[in-house]
Specification:
alpha+beta, 3-stranded antiparallel β-sheet, 29% helix, 7-stranded mixed β-sheet, globular
Length: 171
């Protein structure tokens, strides 16, 4: 398996991403071709591929102007590949790459009814910041979640650690 940053010239892969968006979210929830190209050119778009270059998972990020923060706009795993840990692999690797680029914090929104996604994000170190009522229209609520890339909480010892260029320092 490999994680790659998608290049605008790789139209075959971009088509696979678009098809995965439709499969995962339908026409009202997924990223369209204009958005996909924006993530590639002005944000970050990472994918996890298997040895046959089949698309397993997609992560779409957009920057927050003037800050060392980024928003995870979209995250999905191919329907037939869900539950195999591929999302976790892509999430961890994309976080590492974003940290190397100087990002300090990641935000995302998630449907409060999507327990599997919320659990995955919590296990990856995200916390729920707030419930955003009617965020995407009447009755379409979202949790705002965030992850600080500069520190983490060791779940066993309950101690906070700071990450400095892949070196871990105890606080």
């Amino acid at each position: 398996m490999k994680v790659i940053e998608v290049d605008a010239k790789n139209r075959e892969l971009i088509k696979k991403i678009f098809d995965n968006e439709l499969e995962s979210f339908g026409v009202m929830g997924g990223a369209d071709m204009w958005m996909i190209m924006s993530f590639i050119r002005y944000g970050k778009l990472y994918v996890l591929l298997n040895e046959s270059n089949d698309l397993l998972s997609v992560a779409q990020y957009q920057g927050v102007l003037g800050k060392k923060e980024i928003f995870l706009y979209g995250f999905s795993t191919s329907l037939k590949e869900r539950g195999k840990g591929y999302g976790k692999i892509l999430l961890e690797e994309s976080h590492n790459r974003l940290k190397e680029l100087g990002m300090e914090k990641i935000y995302l929104t998630v449907d409060p009814a999507n327990a599997k996604a919320i659990d995955m994000y919590k296990k990856a170190g995200y916390i729920i910041e707030e419930l955003q009522k009617d965020e995407y229209g009447k009755g379409i609520d979202r949790y705002l979640m965030s992850k600080n890339l500069l520190w983490y909480l060791d779940k066993n010892t309950k101690k906070v650690y700071i990450k400095l260029k892949r070196t871990i320092t105890k606080l």
